[in-house]
Design goal:
Ribonuclease Z; five-stranded mixed sheet
Length: about 110
């Protein structure tokens, strides 16, 4: 598992592994990154469905309760195919933009 930390944002990437193993590894390293905004780069998964993305729902909910962003990056699943509780975007830059917007919303208590 590759953790790329940029300020208070951690981008998580895993190469050549199953989704189940990726989630297990993520849960294992989560205590180290729980205070950061998290971007999960899912581009290494050649096949990804909305059902696969739902596997991240509990972790996303837990992370958002601590007022931190949790964003999935993939172009295999559209944002309208998953519940609003999961933030999914097609590029890393859009994920960073979402984090900036969510930080502003938190500061303004919206």
């Amino acid at each position: 598992m590759i953790l790329d930390k940029e300020g208070n944002v951690t981008i998580v990437l895993q190469e050549n592994i199953s989704l189940v193993a990726f989630i297990a590894n993520l849960k294992e390293v989560y205590p180290k990154i729980k205070n950061d905004h998290i971007i999960l780069n899912l581009f290494t998964f050649k096949k990804l469905t909305s059902g696969d993305v739902l596997e991240f729902l509990d972790l996303a909910d837990t992370h958002k309760k601590s007022n931190k962003s949790f964003i999935l990056v993939t172009d295999k699943v559209a944002y309208d195919e998953v519940p609003e509780r999961i933030c999914i975007v097609p590029t890393i830059q859009e994920a960073k933009d979402i984090i900036e917007m969510e930080e502003i919303e938190r500061e303004l208590e919206l």
